[in-house]
Amino acid sequence: MLEASNNSELPTIPGKRYFTIGEVSELCAVKPHVLRYWEQEFPQLSPVKRRGNRRYYQHQDVILIRQIRALLYEEGYTIGGARLQMETGTEKVQTVQLQQVLPQMIAELEGVLALLETPN
Fold this sequence. Notes:
Layout: H1 21-28, H2 32-41, E1 48-49, E2 55-56, H3 59-74, H4 79-117
Antiparallel strand pairs: 1-2
Helix pairs in contact: 3-4
């Protein structure tokens, strides 16, 4: 097992559209065979496969891998526990995001309504 280290110590993710498994391995400090194993264990992780079954990961895949890595290596979850955490965590994140966005949307709509109600 790898030593516990913060994801903040990992290199920054470049602004590319696709990453090879080798690049993701370096960006996330995880060996390629571990990434292939995680694809089987975490349904959220599904890189694009091109000719010759070559994997190409997108930016959100790299972020997801870093989350999985943090759960397993830093927080001490098992594969099953991390999978469960990812499933429930996604729902929690969506709820929190919705709670943050709704007041902003309401304020913007009230601003638009105020503009429409003012005489020219």
